[in-house]
Amino acid sequence: MEINLCGHRMKNPVIAASGTFGFGREYEDFYHPSLLGGISSKGLTLKPQKGNPGQRIHETPAGIMNSIGLQNPGVEEFIRTELTQMLSIDTLTLVNLGGHSIDDYMEGASRLEKTDAPVIELNISCPNVEKGGMAFGIQCIPAKEVVSAVRSVTKKTLIVKLSPNAENIAQMAAACEEAGADGISLVNTFQAMAVDVYKRKAVFERVTAGLSGPAIFPIALRMVHDAAKAVSIPVIGLGGIQQAEDAIAMIMAGATAVQVGTAQFMRPSLVPDLIEDMKRYKETQGIRSWGEIRGII
Known about the structure:
Layout lengths: L2 E3 L2 E3 L3 E3 L21 E3 L16 E4 L2 E4 L8 H7 L1 H6 L3 E6 L4 H12 L5 E5 L16 H12 L5 E5 L7 H10 L4 E4 L3 E4 L1 E2 L4 E2 L5 E5 L4 H14 L4 E4 L5 H9 L4 E4 L1 H5 L3 H15 L13
Parallel strand pairs: 3-4, 3-16, 4-7, 7-8, 8-9, 9-10, 10-15, 15-16
Antiparallel strand pairs: 1-2, 5-6, 6-14, 11-14, 12-13
Helix pairs in contact: 3-4, 4-5, 5-6, 7-9
């Protein structure tokens, strides 16, 4: 089940997705997080954020919508109170880093550079306050600028998390590779909307929110396939994975590893079963390593 992700050994290809697993402690009542190949931390920003007001979660027929607003303790508090515990888990730690300006990203990455965190997962779906709120990850030039800037201040493994709202996901992936990314992960949530027809208003105070869950899986799979064909660096596939067959499909589409998120809210004990099912598939199909089927589509 082992894989190599950007030079890091992982016991299996399954990573807990950012924003769905906290800092690794929250699921200990269900299974030990060391079963995972990796854990991506809750999204961090340079300074603490309280998150969005009002309702933050809304169920949909095949997933959930969230408007959390990157509530987090900030990079320094994370380093002081959470990072050591995360690193003590026998699994690969990915620190998910967001920002609202290039300076934010650079300063956050500079502080993480001084720690033992092995991987930075750079979330470029954040609104760029310097450009009127449009996310860095929508157009190639702003994405390239922020990835290049972060690359200049850190030697850590840099994985860039792409927004599905990018104008062209293949071009975006290639731009991030050119700017110095060691890998990419995709997709983040899709922008969506819900209305309470009895209150005659949007469910979320900010009107739109991020959609995740099984509803987005076929689109995420297509985007992973497109991105993997456009780059030579490893790809982490995520978006709607809820069973072993989904994770394996992502690998066949070109992913080196996968991330699982929303499905854990529906069944917190899902991951151990998913990993065992992947192992069983590998054995019954006579597959010696995941590389044999990676990118065969």
